[in-house]
Design goal:
Aspartate Aminotransferase, domain 2; 14 strands; 4-aminobutyrate aminotransferase, mitochondrial (chains A, B); transferase (chains A, B); PyrdxlP-dep_Trfase_small (chains A, B); homodimer; seven-stranded mixed beta sheet; EC 2.6.1.22 (chains A, B); Aminotrans_3_PPA_site (chains A, B)
Chain lengths: 491, 491
């Protein structure tokens, strides 16, 4: 790194929790003014910016400030001009790298201006090109068996509304598709059953599905996400804890998966007896925030069958796995089934949130799944172009190639540094590796950044790799060399 | 209307609920193809588009498709070229009209390109100009007593996260700001108390705060919003049912407000005894979706005091009232107090969602209020420019002037058509009037549209007026004339 910004910034981040009271904010502003008056060069722009922001926001999670204008492809540039190979891509949400020429060109087209300037209420007054743009973008990559899609503004809203769709579907089934009773109508207004029924969603320990209150009841990744927020008494199943590489432990892993599937069935029965039947099961194809936990195609196919057997909807959350990073457009395509799910939600690399669903999961009336914006057509515009680039540049093949090189490189490093690394795993470039402990993990993340590589953590002590789809074999080797240097320092 | 689109489109909307099965979709596509092959002119573009969309989305709420390129200022143009005076503005979310030159100019500035093309994870890697853009935009209109702001992608996410901030604040108080216990940490992972505590938010009958599951537990506007979705057992207070014009019924209205305030205190006590203490109270300054229900400044000041007395946070939801439409930037400014709230949430006319909060409502740790995008800097860019326009063109004064003309006009029409109209009410241009019954209301909305005025309903039988801030007295008179014509047909 050209300037000694990171350490100072991190220490600020750790003390920022003190900055609550007005007096502390005044102290903070004074420090900021003093620092900015010092001769330039010593105190970095990053420090000045963080001291500005701390007066009106929590900055505890800020890594640094970026110069997005100067960032290109796989390289993120910070405000001090440091250029980093980005293997984290804004928590896995930049599909084809920074400032891709195709997206810049789209912005230069005057025909697109109006889409950015006039954001419509899509549910009531969509623009003329809305059906075509959906067809070009989201519908052109619809999961198998799904012809319907609903856009939403972010990942959490997508899952919240997918859950609602499952509840509505389940209750309509229970009612025999008759109109709701007067009691349904009157009780729902005051949050009581039967109008607001005691239904549940079954989720998995280690899962992450967002942070709004419905989603949060199915999120079980870290305590900090959930602490102090009221929740629902919904069933939580164990997610298989597999041994890696998967192909070397097939027998042990199959046993572990069978144990989890059995527990799922038990929970469904138990919650039905409790009077809180499971309307839907939600799962990630690879648990991401929870520590990059994989399961076999057979596990997911069996789970899908269990859902069908017990009359629960099956919701696959592809917010982090979707968009090509596993080498297929959707991670569930690796399961080898034509009927992977009833609902598939997405966001991040898709640039818009939303969910696909089967015909029967369509709410039976307008205004049941609804809000003011229901997405943003300007994001559909970008997505259509991103998909063009993915096809034109065969990026899924690139991901498969780069992913193989990355995973092989991780295996080699793991053999070389057995005291530090373990459990290398991945699909496409969606890879991860465990570090011996949390402190070493964090030290490695910082040292890598000092050497020009931006990485992210997940779970208790994993590093996750989330490059853009334009991350080539060349970038893999660049990364592996630097990672090797960092590890050598820790040996 | 130039073409006979609306009636046909509406009939389609009513039958669309049948279009669930694959076979019905095939029928629908066949109808679409046949219609499109007919000689042009008879079947409108709108019909063709809706038949396209019905194959992959619920279209029951679609009014028509728009040509946003050709829309200007207060005038929305549909795909058939019909030009309508827009008094609804995308459910109150277009602040300064369609295609405002200032926003088009902003798009033409190449320095802004990168902000649109590279959406950052704002919570970890904000752009260099992020603190300055927040200062120029949201912080320049911060409510009294609030110096901190958190952006979010939409109104529901804003309220969800505001609720979380209140829960976190409340539990930290309860813990004496000590670190959470091991039991807190372990129980929260499985959705159980004390980690996921039995806290509640007090809301009001008729209120609307969004449709994700936390928000929805505080929404009590229409059954269709809530039916079949599990909810929380949270207290719901009556919202004053006042008589209009407010100044003619001060004594009766004060009594009604006192009754509601008493009930609020009773509920707070009752829910504390139930073991589900009220962490926060949420209310709209004018209940919008619920039927444009007003209350007096004294009511809100008293409620704010009740919240303080009982140790509850006070959350004012300005998603629909914020942004200038009441003649002040925030509707709560009409209350005449320096300390209106602990949290104020916004979205719609602010173009980005989010909430302001007092210092003490700041979450004590990073990653407690967090998600991937945490808003969208491109929306802050637009908002800064919108605020410039509001100041430069004195739009709040314009709104006050137009609002007076509008309300006076509604009073006159109400006197003229006492069998149809009643309860004209409003603040700024945020006005409404009741129609004798639901069927007449809907017929009036359709007839107004046929005559080139786009209006929206709210509550059981109200019409709400939600023009942009550029709606001048000239437009008021234009609207009143047409409205008069429509009413004359119903007399």
């Amino acid at each position: 790194m050209e300037k000694m910004t990171v350490t100072f910034q991190l220490s600020l981040a750790t003390i920022h929790h003190q900055f609550y009271s007005h007096s502390m904010i005044i102290v903070c502003v004074c420090v900021y003014v003093c620092l900015c008056l010092l001769p330039g060069g010593f105190i970095s722009t990053v420090c000045c910016l963080i001291l500005k922001l701390v007066s009106f926001q929590n900055v505890g999670a800020i890594n640094f400030f970026c110069n997005y204008e100067e960032s290109r492809g796989n390289y993120l540039v910070d405000v001090d001009g440091n250029r980093m190979l980005d293997v984290y891509t804004q928590i896995s949400s930049i599909p084809i790298g920074y400032n891709h020429p195709a997206l810049l060109k789209l912005m230069a087209n005057p025909n697109n201006l109006s889409t950015f300037v006039n954001r419509p209420a899509l549910g009531i007054l969509p623009p003329e090109n809305f059906p075509d743009k959906l067809t070009e973008s989201l519908l052109s990559v619809a999961p198998s068996g799904m012809t319907r899609v609903q856009t939403m503004a972010c990942g959490s809203c997508s899952n919240e509304n997918a859950y609602k769709a499952m509840f509505i579907w389940y209750r309509n089934k229970e009612r025999g598709h008759n109109i709701p009773s007067d009691e349904d109508i009157s009780t729902c207004m005051i949050n009581q059953a039967p109008g607001c029924p005691d239904l549940s969603i079954l989720s998995f320990m280690g899962g992450f599905h967002g942070r709004t209150m419905g989603c949060l009841a199915t999120t079980h990744s870290k305590a900090i996400h959930k602490l102090d927020v009221p929740s629902f008494d919904w069933p939580i199943a164990p997610f298989p804890r597999l041994q890696y590489p998967l192909e070397e432990f097939t027998r042990e892993n199959a046993q572990e998966e069978a144990r989890c599937l059995e527990e799922v069935e038990d929970l469904i029965v138990k919650w039905r007896q409790k009077g809180k039947p499971v309307a839907g099961i939600v799962i990630e194809p690879i648990q991401a925030e929870g520590g990059d936990n994989h399961a076999s195609p057979n596990f997911f196919r069996s789970l899908r069958n269990i859902a069908r057997k017990h009359g629960c909807a099956f919701h696959v959350d592809e917010v982090q796995t979707g968009g090509g990073c596993t080498g297929k457009f959707w991670a569930h395509e690796h399961w080898g089934t034509d009927d992977p799910a009833d609902i598939v939600s997405f966001s991040k690399k898709l640039l818009t949130g939303g969910y696909y669903h089967k015909d029967e999961l369509q709410a039976d009336k307008a205004y049941r799944i609804f809000n003011t914006w229901m997405g943003d057509p300007s994001k559909n515009l970008f997505l259509a172009e991103v998909l063009n680039v993915i096809r034109r540049e065969n990026l899924l093949e690139e991901v498969t190639r780069s992913g193989k090189a990355l995973l092989n490189g991780l295996y080699e490093l793991q053999a070389q540094y057995p005291g530090i690394l373990s459990r290398a795993r991945g699909q496409g470039t969606f890879c991860a590796i465990d570090i011996c402990d949390d402190a070493t993990r964090n030290s490695i993340l910082l040292k890598a950044r000092d050497k020009g590589v931006l990485l992210g953590g997940c779970g208790d002590r994993s590093i996750r790799f989330r490059p853009a789809l334009v991350f080539k074999e060349y970038h893999v080797h660049l990364f592996l060399n630097i990672f090797n240097d960092v590890l050598a320092q820790h040996k």
